[in-house]
Amino acid sequence: MNEYDEAVKSISELRKTLETRLDDCITRENAEKIAEDAVRRLHPPEKKALLPQTPEDLAARAEKFRTGAANAPEKPWTSAYGAKFGNMRNFLIAAREHYGMSADGKAAPLAEGGGTGGGYLVPAEFTAEVVRIMGDVSVIMQLANVIPMSGWKRHLPKQLTNVAVGWVAEGAARPVTNPTFGQIEQVAKVLAAVIKCSDELLRDSAVNLTAFLAEIVAENMALEIERVALAGSVSGGDPFDGVLNGSGVNQVSMAGASVCFDDIASLLFSLNAQYARDGVIALSRTGLKKLLALKDTTGSYIWQPPAGNLPATLWNTPYVVSSQIPTNLGTGSDLTAALFGRFKNYLIVSPRQQLEVRVSQDAADWVDSQLQSAFMSDQTWLRFSQALSVDVAYGAAFSCLKFK
């Protein structure tokens, strides 16, 4: 029996428990455990992406990576820029020394990045691997409308109102209406990740550096972009407001002390047909666990398993689970959120150019009142950066239900 079948079995057991003697405190606790087990099997917890803080942390992860399936032999880079270096190791050495030298010993000029960090553009092979992994680990990179931007700032048009239509009598004047438009001002901000590695790791030919570093950079950047896109708060210090805090987002309130079917119906019907069409619910694992036990007005459970090529749904609406949706909202810090809307149309993620990297053996940092020096420790520090903008194009195209 596979994980999915086990999950369905757990949910069946949960429903049986809920429909018998839920007033029994032991049964109630059992129901909670069954629900947790079902959610875990349906949506395995995401591997929490933690950026290695020390060269020792990085070495430990590299050792684990070395014996994994992802550590396949590194393919030679073949793009016009990447072929000058051949692989990630040669590129990082060239960036560290501030000169370009190809695998055959010839001069290979490094491409200056357009960011503010003074780094070099990373060849397309590495960037492509980062983008691929980001799409695998982040639901938002799959749901959002990804539109690259070439400058630090740009304006995108957005429609504010629709054309109005109406019936008129014969010979009467036809109504003249015009849709109104506004603009989204996108301003790219820099997201950076610093990786401290030993010089020995850069010399270790047994590790596919392209795959290894791409995995670390992609996981951390993707989940941070997901957090900001869903729950970012400018007033809380984030560079962008996410859907949870977006201006104009429809707010749906619980009808009672805990979530019920009417709340989910209100969430889905709070948007008009234009914005609800092809809509998706984004919620936390805690939120999904709460909804597994809900029934609609016909007595059917609102959660339904996948069928054929169709995904699992909540009241016939597809959903995704994100670890970046808070579970400590509200005055009592006991609420989570369900976000509903057309993410593909109205949540925009706009990366600017390629990744950049700056490599240093002279960098230093204060950690716990102690100075850490790359130079004194035979280390090479890598600072990867990506400029991008994250924008909720139209708040009214989303609804938010905070519940427990």
Q: How is this structure best described in words?
A:
- Helices cover about 30% and strands about 25% of the residues.
- The protein is an alpha+beta fold and about 400 residues long.
Q: Total number of β-strand segments?
A: 16
How many alpha or pi helices? 12
Order of helices and strands: HHHHEHHEEEEHHEHHEHEEEEHEEEEE
Strand order of the largest sheet: 6-16-11-7-10-9-8
Uncertain runs? none
The biggest beta sheet, please? 7 strands, mixed
Judging from the principal axes of the Cα atoms, what is the shape? globular
Through-space gap between termini: 32 Å
The residue-averaged pLDDT reads 85
Rg over C-alpha atoms, rounded to the nearest angstrom: 25 Å
What is the percent of helical residues? Answer: 25-40%
Q: What structural category arises from helix and sheet content?
A: alpha+beta
Short description:
The protein has helices spanning 3-18, 25-42, 55-66, 88-97, 124-137, 139-143, 199-203, 209-231, 261-269, 273-276, 285-291, 343-346, and strands at residues 120-121, 145-146, 153-159, 181-187, 189-198, 250-252, 280-283, 303-304, 313-314, 317-321, 336-341, 347-360, 364-367, 370-373, 379-392, 398-403. It has 404 residues and is an alpha+beta fold.
